[in-house]
Design a protein that fits this description.
Elements (H helix, E strand, L loop, with lengths): L5 H7 L6 E8 L5 E5 L5 E3 L2 E3 L24 H4 L6 H5 L7 E8 L7 E9 L3 E3 L2 E3 L2 E2 L30 H4 L1 E4 L2 E4 L2 E3 L14 E4 L8 E8 L4 E4 L12 E4 L7 H8 L14 H5 L4
Antiparallel strand pairs: 1-2, 1-5, 3-4, 5-6, 6-9, 7-8, 10-16, 11-12, 12-15, 13-14, 13-16, 14-15
């Protein structure tokens, strides 16, 4: 049930309304950007909604079915207020979106909640950033329960895993750059594969605050390879933090983390070959 103030309700019931739409995007790090389709900036509940033309009133549609809809946020993501490098760095992935309406002639009347949800992962299509809006109905399409797999179903370091990643965290800095996905840290001496599938977080440099998964670590060449290129250039001297990686296999859990007792998979589960086998 939507809640609105008595004054705003009276305005909506009047013969003439002065309404506009507001869109507020809240990133996971707490940063907020806000837009309005009004012809001037509005300050509502302490948030400044910019009228930079990035949002149009016809961008949003309501559907009666339960399918995930592409919410027209292309214009929003191309706004001058949103840095393309921050999008590519993933800072807007799963950001919260609140769509409301207000009386621009008297913003003290409050707002009417129209829609809210979260941005899905953002992709580049046709030279523009596009994303879909995930609402509460999207939760109904998620898998409930757990599956039996040989690999661990836990995330390394979460409450069920029990590994203290903070104790395994190491710091380093870039000594040379290969490209947007690769760099060298000549001071590292861990065995090859030690950081594979780990999360690397940049502490300084143009990518500070951004995190990315490590695709591989080669001790012989001392090269880090990332799964995705960074949104901004990697520079020599950039500092990072990274903990040991986990490939979700039982042997790794036991040898690297000494955590076999909490392993979340079933390494001795018969595979499809055993199920489909027959006597010779």
């Amino acid at each position: 049930m939507k809640e609105l103030s008595t004054a705003l309700a009276a305005h909506l019931n009047g013969e003439l309304t002065t309404l506009c739409e507001l869109v507020k995007i809240t990133r996971r790090d707490g940063a907020v950007v806000a837009f309005t389709n009004h012809d001037r900036d509005l300050v509502v509940d302490g948030v400044c909604y910019k009228a930079d033309g990035a949002f149009s009133a016809g961008a949003m549609t309501q559907q009666l079915d339960m399918k995930t809809r592409d919410y027209d946020v292309v214009g929003l993501l191309d706004s001058a207020m949103i840095d393309g490098g921050e999008i590519e760095a993933g800072l807007y992935d799963h950001a919260r979106i609140d769509v409301t309406m207000c009386n621009w002639a008297d913003v003290s009347q409050g707002v009417l909640q129209v829609r809210r949800g979260w941005l899905g992962e953002i992709a580049m299509r046709g030279g523009q950033y596009t994303a879909s809006l995930r609402g509460l109905h999207d939760l109904l399409s998620r898998r409930v329960g757990q599956t039996y797999t040989p690999e661990c179903r836990y995330d390394c370091g979460d409450g069920r895993c029990g590994v203290n990643l903070a104790a395994l965290m190491v710091s380093g800095s870039v000594t040379s750059v290969i490209d947007g996905r690769g760099f060298v840290d000549a001071a590292r001496g861990e065995e090859s594969g030690y950081f594979q599938d780990a999360k690397l977080t940049w502490v300084t440099g143009a990518n500070a605050g951004a995190s990315v998964e490590v695709s591989g670590w080669d001790n012989a060449t001392q090269i880090f390879t990332l799964w995705l290129p960074m949104g901004r250039p990697i520079e020599v001297g950039d500092q990072y933090q990274v903990a040991a990686g986990c490939d979700k296999r039982f042997a790794t859990c036991r040898a690297r983390f000494n955590n076999a007792v909490n392993y979340g998979g079933f390494p001795h589960l018969p595979g499809i070959g055993r199920v489909m086998g027959y006597p010779s």
